[in-house]
Fold this sequence. Notes:
Layout: H1 2-19, H2 28-31, E1 35-43, H3 45-58, E2 66-82, E3 88-103, E4 106-119, H4 124-154
Parallel strand pairs: 1-2
Antiparallel strand pairs: 2-3, 3-4
Helix pairs in contact: 3-4
Amino acid sequence: MKTTKNKFFIVSILLIFLSNCGFKVVDKTALMNFSIKEINFTGDKRINYKLKNILKSKSKKLSSNSIILNIETKKNKSIKEKNINNEITKYELGIVAKIILINGDKTKDFVSIVNGDYTVSEQFSQTLKNESNILDLLIEKLSENINRKLMIEFNEP
């Protein structure tokens, strides 16, 4: 009888402390207090086109903080795995982006790197499709990294 009361007491205490931890979900739209006035790209055209569309769509249209981004992208493709017959089974794809942020008189630069791998299929067209899919995922990750760095930059005390 005492053990069930003790278990009930411990569980109820744990529930009280864990349910009232004070955690709040951050509203990311409130942190996006900047608008991208201009984006200049150098590097891979396909990556740049998709990245530009994603960044422009997530930027606020009207804001007091108008920024200019200069982004240099580079795609790296390397062999990750080979089988016993020395045939390639996996490739690793990486995107390196050097970002220069210009906000009025202030200039800040940072680098964002994303990596992923994809398998080689029996059909070449399927391998190209795998590469295209992983490239789209990496571009999404890269845009999230850039947005996160911009939010941190504009919301520092």
